Amino acid sequence: MADAAHAIGATYKDRPVGKLADLTTFSFFPTKTVTTAEGGAVAAPDPAMLRRAARFRNHGLVRDPGEQRTPGEGGWHQEVHAFGLNYRLPDVLCALGISQLRRLGRFRERRAELVARYHTLLRDVPGLTLPAQRAYVRPSWHLYPVRIGDGRRREVYDRMRAAGIGVQVNYMPVYWHPVFEDIGYRRGLCPEAEAYYFEELSLPLWPGLTDAQQDHVAETLAGILR
User: What's the pLDDT tens digit per position in 127-144?
Assistant: First the structure.
């Protein structure tokens, strides 16, 4: 199973996300590249697995008489062969998502332009590590995460926010949450992930971000670090 919440439209070694795993999940939360206001989607190359997922999102109901154990009960009859949940996305939100998908290419193109500009604007700023990109990956660039060195992440976050710039911190190690602490997980389990989290800062990135706004973000960040 693959979590592609941030990666719709991305490719890895010329293979699109959605074909890299038996089951792939996508998120359409408002901050994602494509949104339906809330909800998500599942992709699976295996039709049988996709049918299972479709049933699970609809209480596990089986409506096809050809797949029911007691067919012929009547046109109203439906059966539950395995427990499911109510994960259906409303039709009006599906319509929004379909409209957004038609614009996915433009969204990704603009995000890539903004990332290239960030790379140029910030490449010489001291104490700053920019995100890496491998030649065989075409990311969708949901976020632009940088690393702030010298223990200054909190200072930079506070000063950027005070300047009206909506930076954010992402990727807290999941086992730091109390629900995992309560069952025995402890800090120090994944030192590299923790080291990254201590430095991570996400800069504003969305297709509607103008060049002038981005210049302001970069100039403010550079001014703080210099």
Answer: 999 999 899 999 999 999
Burial (CB < 10 A; 0-12, 13-18, 19+), residue 194, is: middle
Q: Which of 125, 170, 120 is nearest to 143 (CA)?
A: 170
For residue 44, which amino acid is it?
Answer: A
Let me know: does 113 contact 106? Beta carbons within 8 Å.
no
CA distance 87 to 55: 10
Collapse the DSSP code of 217 into the 3-class scheme (helix H, G, I; strand E, B; otherwise coil) and give the result.
Answer: helix
pTM: 0.84
Query: d(Cα 61, Cα 138) in Å, to the nearest integer?
Result: 38
C-alpha to C-alpha distance for 70 and 66, rounded to whole angstroms? 9
Residue 88 has pLDDT above 90, yes or no: no
Q: Which residues pair with 41 in a beta bridge?
A: 26
Beta strand segments in 58-172, E: 61-62, 79-80, 128-129, 137-138, 144-148
Return the structure tokens found at 4: 């592609």
Q: Whole-angstrom Cα distance, residue 221 to residue 179?
A: 35
Q: Which amino acid is at 117?
A: R
